[in-house]
Design brief:
By secondary structure, the chain is α+β, with helices and mostly antiparallel strands. Helix content is 34%, strand content 25%.
């Protein structure tokens, strides 16, 4: 038994990206879907705390309140830096909880809110400058009139755009060795019996970075099911890529 544990530890440490990316010495970086806040989910107790949907507010389930977070719209490369407002749990599939005001700032589509989340660890002068910018932007949003017609139109457009053309992939792990990627693939096939092994494949596009992926997925809901299975298997952080 001890022998197996030693092999497992050695195997996991050979990954460029492994079961956990929450190293306290490294900034948190993750790519996936944002959860766009709405009051109904708070009333239905899907999320535990309330946010102001007309303000630039966000919540993260790992990073402490006050942490500066850069959020990037993966499709358009537009970005915003916002202070983390609260820390609490939300559906595990999502990387961050954002208000409608943040989604609008990033021009995020409600049916495809794919983002990259980056924790910013900078010097004190940088933090003070960004905090000042955040306060000024928040004042603008707080004083702006609520465009209810615009919100209603977005809701209607969602019904027309249910089919997502893009193909999504779950990045399970990244390695420097193809052999290590193959070992993990074999282990998942063997131990995760309710997972469709035909979806697993090794991507060797970059010579110095070999990825084990699952996909492609044409439906976000189908991908969500496999994402949850892999999380339960033991992966703490799983990134999402598009049109790999």
């Amino acid at each position: 038994m001890k022998y197996k544990i030693i092999i497992l530890i050695f195997f996991l440490t050979s990954c460029a990206q492994n079961y956990s990316k929450t190293n306290l010495n490294q900034p948190f970086i993750s790519k996936g879907f944002a959860y766009i806040y709405n009051d109904e989910d708070f009333v239905d107790k899907i999320i535990k705390k309330k946010l102001d949907n007309n303000s630039l507010q966000i919540a993260h389930n790992k990073l402490r309140p006050g942490t500066l977070i850069k959020i990037i719209n993966v499709k358009t490369n537009e970005s915003i830096i916002v202070k983390n407002t609260k820390r609490f749990q939300y559906p595990d599939f999502y990387k961050i909880l954002i208000t409608k005001a943040v989604a609008d700032e990033l021009n995020l589509k409600a049916d495809l809110p794919l983002v990259e989340v980056i924790e910013l660890k900078k010097n004190k002068s940088f933090i003070a400058k960004e905090a000042k910018i955040f306060k000024e932007e928040e004042k603008i949003h707080n004083n702006a009139p609520v465009e209810t017609v615009k919100i209603d139109n977005i809701s209607k457009n969602n019904n027309k755009d249910k089919t997502v053309k893009e193909k999504f992939y779950i990045i399970i792990a990244e390695f420097y060795s193809k052999n290590s990627a193959s070992l993990l693939k074999e282990r998942i096939n063997k131990e995760l019996t309710n997972f469709d092994d035909k979806k697993l494949f090794i991507n060797t596009k970059k010579s110095n970075k070999i990825s084990l992926l699952s996909g492609p997925y044409n439906s976000i809901n189908l991908m969500k099911n496999d994402y949850i299975l892999l999380k339960k298997f033991g992966f703490e952080e799983l990134d999402i890529s598009i049109n790999e």
